[in-house]
Amino acid sequence: MAERKLPRDLERLERLLAAGPRPEPSAALRQRVLGGVQSELHREDVLLRWRCATTLAATVLLAVGLSLAAVETTAFALQPRRSPPSVHEVARRLRQLSPDLSPAESVREATLLQIGAEVGCRTKLGDQLGLGNAP
Amino acid sequence: MNGPGTDPLLLGLAAGDPRAFAALYDRYAVRLYRAACGILGSREDAEDVVQEVFLAAVRSHERLGDVRDLTAYLFTAMSRAATRCAMRRTRTLQASRGAANEAAAALKRAPAESPDWHRLQQALGLLPSPQREVITLKIDGELTFAQIAQVLGVSINTAASRYRYALQKLKAFLMEKSTSQEARQ
After folding, report:
1. For chain B, what are the domain ranges?
2. In whole angstroms, what is the distance from residue B148 CA to residue B156 CA?
3. CB contact under 8 A, A41 and B168
4. A3 close contact with B: CB closer than 8 A
């Protein structure tokens, strides 16, 4: 139906309408419209840049905020690595705890405790003698 | 015809390429302008409307890549802009289009116009605005009935019928005029 044929008389009328003088846009209109288009595109470009900048700034602020919150709630103090006491020191402490131990025996016990602490075998006595923090 | 997403012009428009908008202007501006003149009856208003159509196209350029019928899209924008323009001038659309009739006739009159053409313009001014609009879109806008239907939001049959009735009315008016002229002679 869309472009169906018109009767001849109406077709003639249609041709007459189409053949008549038509208004033409002024020469300045092209420049005016395309100028408007350019400035609109430029405005949009500027807006896009601002949007990117504000998004970036918001992201940075959020990251800084989160970092500060993490710093606030985390203890970052480094714990100094304590070197384990020497065998003789452990032996001395052993002798203090049980004075009836002979010096040779206390050295032997201290050596065993220290070796145990070094391989990760923690004992109550070792902790008491300061061997608990041994690596 | 290239479909949406493949037409280089549509792709250029969607990308916001100023050259694509210049090509769009060269392809459509005159037809849009003439149709706006026919609806509003004012050259200044028609120029404002054409500018408004292009600015609206720029503002929504990202969506232009998906437009199926660019001609219908632009003429729909033109029709809406013309309605807004008429309302801005604190007239009702009906009144503005009615009042525009004489201006439109004067606008189209050329120094070397034929008596037939003059009578035709008078007859156009007497048509109801929906019929005049169809005539304007068909003759000045060079749209198909499918495109006119899309612009006006009616069925293709309605658009075609309106056009046919409008031509019949014009013909009746012309015949009536010539009969009365003959009677006077």
Report:
1. 8-184
2. 8
3. no
4. yes
